[in-house]
Amino acid sequence: MVEAAETLKTTVEKMSAAGNQAYKDSVEKTLTALNEVSALSKSNVEAVVESMTAATKGAETVGAQAMAYSKKSWDDAVAAAKTLSGAKSVQEVIELQSKYAKSSMEAYVSEMNQMAETLSASFKDTFKPINARVTATVEKFQSYR
Fold first, then answer.
1. Among 36, 37, 42, 65, which residue's beta carbon has the most beta carbons within 10 A?
2. How far is it, in rounded angstroms, from Cα 125 to Cα 53?
3. How far apart are CA 22 and CA 4, in angstroms?
4. DSSP letter, residue 1
5. Quick check: 22 and 101 in contact, CB under 8 A?
6. Please, is 109 exposed, middle or buried when counting C-beta atoms within 10 Å of its C-beta (0-12, 13-18, 19+)?
7. What contacts 57, CB < 8 A, 6 or more positions away?
8. Are 66 and 141 in contact (CB under 8 A)?
9. What is the DSSP letter of 33?
10. Alpha carbon distance 53, 130 (integer Å)
């Protein structure tokens, strides 16, 4: 009977130790996962802030370009009006107006191309940190497989 009690005691101690170890391992895994999620979340917030900063900078650049183009366009229109007012004939008015229209259209097309390039660069800069975080998150989830 003493031998059976010792065996039972040993078995209970082993089961208790195994249960305690399993619980400890489970808690450690959970804490590790929580720390990883916290680090990912922090990195995601940093990426959003970086993205918004790039978007703001891009918007400022586009705004400055638009203002500069508007000012130049206005100045060109005023200069063209002054030139037209000094025309000596209807033929000269038509020639001056045609010249102004052509240069105005060329300036507009050039400005739109430049604006498209600026916007494209701004979008790339804006989404670069977000894309990096998505890639990192996907890689992290794939590593859990």
1. 65
2. 9
3. 27
4. -
5. no
6. exposed
7. 122, 125
8. no
9. H
10. 12
For 101, how many CA atoms within 13 A lie in the half-sphere containing its CB? 6
> Model pTM greater than 0.70?
no
Instruction: Please state the three-class secondary structure of 62-129 as a single string.
Output: HHHHHHHHHHHHHHHHHHHHHHHHCCCCHHHHHHHHHHHHHHHHHHHHHHHHHHHHHHHHHHHHHHHH
What amino acid is encoded at 16 in this protein? S
62-71 burial: b if 16+ Cβ within 10 Å, else e: eeeeeeebee
